[in-house]
TrEMBL record:
Name of protein: LysM domain-containing protein
Keyword Lipoprotein applies: no
Pfam family of the protein (one): LysM
Transmembrane segments: 26-44
SUPFAM superfamilies: LysM domain
Species this protein is from: Anaerocolumna xylanovorans DSM 12503
Keyword terms: Membrane, Transmembrane, Transmembrane helix
Length: 120
């Protein structure tokens, strides 16, 4: 912004604000405020850190019979791999695959479990 544009804009402001704007302190304070705002925004930015896959994985499914004492959590614990974000999202996928609307499963029934297997 050149001097004449700045003067035109500031003519519209009250005298005490104009005096403040002409001081170098204003520029320094504005720079500090911008720097702090940028630092805070970078610190608060959410990030997901994931490990890079060293191998190719292919999604597979397996049908298993539900045994006495099995829960979705225990079954998921046997088949989960690092390809899944966390246990809750994996259990959610198992439920969606089997069209389950609750966490209840019954002994003797069958359930399809998706999982990732290492490729060749």
């Amino acid at each position: 912004m050149n001097q004449s544009t700045f003067a035109f804009i500031t003519r519209q402001l009250p005298a005490d604000i104009r005096r403040f704007l002409h001081k170098k302190q204003f520029v320094a304070m504005l720079g500090i405020l911008i720097a702090i705002t940028l630092m805070i925004s970078f610190l608060l930015k959410p990030t997901d850190v994931t490990a890079q896959r060293l191998h190719d994985s292919k999604k597979q499914v397996v049908s298993i019979q539900i045994n006495k004492g099995d829960t979705l959590w225990s079954i998921a614990g046997r088949y989960i791999t690092d390809d899944y974000k966390d246990m809750n999202s994996y259990i959610r996928e198992i439920k969606e695959t089997n069209r389950l609307y609750s966490d209840t499963i019954h002994e003797g029934g069958y359930i399809v479990v998706p999982y990732y297997a290492q490729g060749e």
